[in-house]
Amino acid sequence: MVRGTTAPLAVRMRPTSLDEVIGQRHLLGPGSPLRRLAAPSDVATGQSVILWGPPGTGKTTLAQSIAHSSDRRFVELSAVTAGVKDVRQVMEESLNQRDLFGQSTVLFLDEIHRFTKAQQDALLPGVEQGWVTLIAATTENPSFSVISPLLSRSLLLTLEPLGDDDISELVDRAIADPRGFGDRIALEPEARAQLIRLSSGDARRALTALEAAGAHALEAAAGAEEGADGPATVTAEALASAVDRALLRYDRQGDEHYDVISAFIKSVRGSDPDAALHYLARMIEAGEDPRFIARRIIVLASEDIGMADPQGLVIATAAATAVQMIGMPEGRIPLAEATVYLATAPKSNRSYLGIDKAIADVRAGDFGRVPNHLRDAHYPGAKRLGHGKGYRYAHDAPHGVATQQYLPDPLVGKRYYDAGQHGFERDVAARLERIRRILSGE
């Protein structure tokens, strides 16, 4: 890889060995799988690995550091541009290298989650027979994005976002190292804190922001009075002007999508409107489809608020309609209103639990025939079969409830809906108890 001055700072600063890697200490201890992969070929392991972690945590860096440290043949492919033909060619060449020259091959496949099942299948023979040692990188959960046969033949290693100390060390190295700024810039403490906060544990983001701010500071210093000594100073204001806004680490097709919506749902369910608005803002700023958010809010209203406040579903549906009518950015307002309403509303999941219990019984075959008096009696011959005989019209009964069996015989007495004691459902519980007594003839 070219590491010239025209390459981005994040590329120029990539370590050349595992000892230079910052962070991921839990994966780099003595005797760890990555250390064994980087060992000379006569003692190295042939265990394939899948590196799973957020962007900017060092997946590509680890793979390339292993390549620099090992004497094995190293091949790099990206699932963005490679296809089955490329994979098969690598496998064929790797087999030839092993048989003719006794040289093993390490294949680094970046963004493996972008490969189709057929493309991933093409990797299996080489991995299974040991023609190649696969190092695959992905930002998505391999349990959903990597085929099971490949998962079972690989060791899954999870990378964590870099800590503040790791980012700080990385920034210091980039400032001092000749590959970076070579001590031509200096960071003010406030700018450093802002840069670390902006990075959110993403090394690439930190270096990209530092590169922009450093270039800005150097240009400003060059335009100042001649004779100024020392490094150019990067202030918090300079950093803010160079990096207009924090880019959220949020892939609408990846794990962060599911993590943020999960946190949003759980915050509403947990009655925390502040946390719910925070996660709503993250989704909006990341460009999440507002219709997706609105759909989740509708589900929330039914699943978690339910009969404790039936108005919640009305509010949620109205918010979804409003978003569709007015679009964004104004659509954020009805979404926020619905979010706050649901977060502060009383909660009940009794309707949701009730339908799931009923479905479970039906799937298990726990049901009976519809009672004769409830069957359709409007077609010719129905009355001869006894359909509708004995049915009591509810509106003719006192209180509008007739003593009558509605469940099939095997399920008489079964209760699927058990009203709770929160909000409106408290009134429903009392009324339902009276209704059930009338239905049973008590």
TL;DR of this structure?
The chain is an alpha/beta fold and 442 residues long. The protein has four domains: 24-158, 3-Layer(aba) Sandwich (Rossmann fold), CATH 3.40.50.300; 165-242, Helicase, Ruva Protein, domain 3 (Orthogonal Bundle); 255-344, Up-down Bundle (Zinc Finger, Delta Prime, domain 3), CATH 1.20.272; 366-440, post-AAA+ oligomerization domain-like (Orthogonal Bundle), CATH 1.10.3710.
Structural class: alpha/beta
CATH class of the largest domain reads Alpha Beta
Percent in strands? 5-15%
Low-confidence stretches: none
Trace the largest sheet across and list its strands: 2-3-4-1-5
**Broad shape:** elongated
Count every helix, treating DSSP H or I runs of 4 or more residues as helices.
19
CATH T-level topology of the largest domain: Rossmann fold
Largest sheet, if any?
5 strands, parallel
CATH architecture label of the largest domain: 3-Layer(aba) Sandwich
